[in-house]
Write a structure and sequence with these properties.
This protein is mainly α and 178 residues long. It has a single domain, classed as Rna Polymerase Sigma Factor, Chain: A (Orthogonal Bundle). Helix content is 72%, strand content 0%. Helix 3 crosses helix 4. The longest helix has 23 residues. It is globular, with a radius of gyration of 18 Å.
């Protein structure tokens, strides 16, 4: 019988000095942390660095975590801030990888879909970092507006405004994709 231990329990154990508890937390959340970093930075190498740095920062700052939000939300905030700082420091140099496409489809449709995905990835990379972060956390990670507000350290109306402006920016950019 396998028992699923809550993040709260694991955080408390890690704060009490149990490194194995933090390893379990990392195992549970590292894929999501990397995924956010990849979508924010557009580069696998940069995303690996940002995710690793975020997890190290989480370990070092674990004693300051007060459970005012979920552990995952706290991690999203750390990785998002890492990515925002990285974007200020340098521009992405690699395109986002392709999403898997059904290769049994019509070859012309596969090419067209691939071109649309690349255009969308380029459009996402051109969004201001704050808008991009909010849109990624909402649309690709499925966070609520409240969770995004906590992760980004802003109000819910600010999150809604950023997402709205990001969507408008992508729609405007879409006109040039045709």
């Amino acid at each position: 019988m396998v028992v699923q231990v809550s993040d709260r329990f694991l955080v408390a154990a890690a704060q009490a000095g149990d490194p194995h508890a933090f390893e379990v937390l990392v195992g549970r959340h590292q894929v999501a942390v990397y995924r956010v970093a990849l979508r924010m930075l557009g580069s696998g190498v940069d995303a690996e660095d940002a995710a690793q740095e975020a997890l190290v920062q989480a370990w070092r700052g674990l004693s300051t975590f007060r459970e005012e939000s979920a552990f995952s939300t706290w991690l999203y905030r750390i990785v998002t801030n890492r990515c925002l700082n990285a974007r200020v420091a340098r521009h992405p140099t690699e395109a986002l990888p392709d999403v898997l496409i059904d290769r049994d489809s019509d070859p012309a449709e596969v090419v067209a879909q691939s071109e649309r995905l690349h255009a969308l990835a380029r459009g996402m990379l051109l969004l201001p970092a704050e808008q991009r972060a909010a849109l990624i956390l909402r649309e690709l990670e499925g966070l609520s507006y409240e969770q995004i507000a906590q992760a980004l350290g802003v109000t819910v109306p600010a999150v809604k405004g950023r997402i709205h402006r990001a969507r408008l920016g992508l729609l405007k950019a879409r006109a040039t994709w045709r």
